[in-house]
Amino acid sequence: xxxxxxxxxxxxxxxxxxxxxxxxxxxxxxxxxxxxxxxxxxxxxxxxxxxxxxxxxxxxxxxxxxxxxxxxxxxxxxxxxxxxxxxxxxxxxxxxxxxxxxxxxxxxxxxxxxxxxxxxxxxxxxxxxxxxxxxxxxxxxxxxxxxxxxxxxxxxxxxxxxxxxxxxxxx
Amino acid sequence: xxxxxxxxxxxxxxxxxxxxxxxxxxxxxxxxxxxxxxxxxxxxxxxxxxxxxxxxxxxxxxxxxxxxxxxxxxxxxxxxxxxxxxxxxxxxxxxxxxxxxxxxxxxxxxxxxxxxxxxxxxxxxxxxxxxxxxxxxxxxxxx
Lengths: 171, 143
Fold this sequence. Notes:
The complex is a heterodimer of chains A (171) and B (143). Chain A is of the alpha+beta class.
């Protein structure tokens, strides 16, 4: 399955050597797990998962810049499901040193991930653009805010995006 | 208005959300619950969601012609200080209610995006720092 991996080499929470080839090892102990179902095309409720992530991090007293980076990247990923898919789910795991947001969808898949990462590139419909989406900045915005970004996509099957933000503020 | 900042050799001001709304003859639909004023020292003018998410300063004012609930959600997510809708576009009651719940100041001006932006620039409110531009070009070249 075509995939893409980018990470910030300075990020300390990624140095523990517990990474799997695909996703990061998810240690359930002492973590907070948030799950959200995402409906494709539902622009009224869209973004609730990311809002919930933001509120939860705020209650935990996490630094506002780290909250903002987590919320922005989660929101972009969540909106991609609403724009391009029928259905998907989001899982956010907040542990002591990082936040991992995984988003899976049953959508059309990304034809060329490298191309999709190029700022300004978008396949969003005219209708969606009228609502202010489809600027072609979604994946760039995730990359800009995350410490690690993993994308796996199969045409006709769907896409999985995993975003990691280290909570020690290493960038 | 206090002259308190300098950037690129220009002096910039800050003002309260209420003062800026007044300068644009805007109708204020939502205020903070306790009526507290929000200090504003920079402005974003944009009609694109992802673009709004690219700005990096604390509590800027958002001028936009984009009127849908996602604008409120995004504004809350990135700690926007307040929103002013341009072109006289009135948000639906549901959006106003959402802004009330999130205590997001909201106003409507009849001025256009360009006209409102120019007016606030003339008042000495600086453009909000953008995370796109050069940084974005660098990111897109990075493998």
